[in-house]
Amino acid sequence: MLKALRLLGFILVTGVAYLLMWPVPIEPKVWEPSTDPGYTGDFEKNSRLESFKPLTMGDKTGPEAAVLSPDGDVIATSHEGWLVRFKNGTENATPWVEVGGRPLGLDQDSFGNIWVANAYSGLQKVTPDGVVTVELAEVAGTKIGYADDVAVANNNKIYFSDATTRFHAQDWGGTLPASILDIVEHGETGRIIEYNPVTGDASVVLSGLNFANGVAADPDGEFILVNETGKYQVWKYWLKGPRKGQSDVVLSGLPGFPDNVSAGKDGVFWVGVMSPRSADIDKLATKPFWRKVILRLPEPMKPQPQDYGMVLGISGDGEVVHNLQAPNGALYATTGVLETTGDIYVTSLTAPFLAKISKEALK
User: Fold this and answer.
1) CA distances from 21 to 14, 59, 102, 170, 301 (A)
2) Please, what are the domains in the chain?
């Protein structure tokens, strides 16, 4: 009995020592989260996203972003490092171009080139005939280690996010584990990069973001919108006019983690909300020590994304004009929207399908 008690005591002491002292890769910063509004007001719970049609990805998963080609095909990214193509009117994807790594954000320029924010490689360009090049892999002397979303502005410049310079996706087990580390640390190392494809010049235009994520360009070239995932908010950065180079938060206090943002029709910008907020993360915002302890817990005990679908349509000034949700979890890890004339395509970080919903059905 005495030996058993000693063994139990040793196990308990070792376990407590591990939880309190085992090295972890983060140095958490104190921060103040906005009030969580829950699913009320502009974010009132509904099931408007649940009537989707799944377009199959074949053996691919995770259509994080999608664009519409000039010939009417929908092109999407995949977790397996491919761009897949849904030929006009079809419901099954076919592999098109292997770009490697983990392609996340997509946008298209006036020449039909597709620009890819690749979390492992940096900024890539794919020509209409499928030639892939890495256009930018570092800026300001720092490697681009988590390129996340990209937008082509009508000033012919490319704007894209480098989500975190602390936790490169390829070095920390992939995009999701790296994002969790960065959001738990809250180190404000995310940045937005401006790239001139003609001259090759690149510079950081917005920095100090807690996981810089979605980027969308105003069709008139006035501004870009930027999602700051770790603070549940959306920024507006002016590209021209008297406020050129300045920025403001236009939407804060979101009920979940904003992911991509894209320009839609009629002045609407679509924001994907990947998962509801974590009450645990918010409660521990001012307690850096306990955030380290959380990282030492077994994986099933750590805060995890929830299977809850949500996308928002907002104006350029942050007014919520569309609120679409799927509380049943059938559509989950929702990262954004591609809007076409008659439909919206809802993208996902992990789903094995691309969700298509008729705009007529949403009226």
Assistant:
1) 10, 42, 33, 26, 18
2) 2-362 (2.120.10.30)
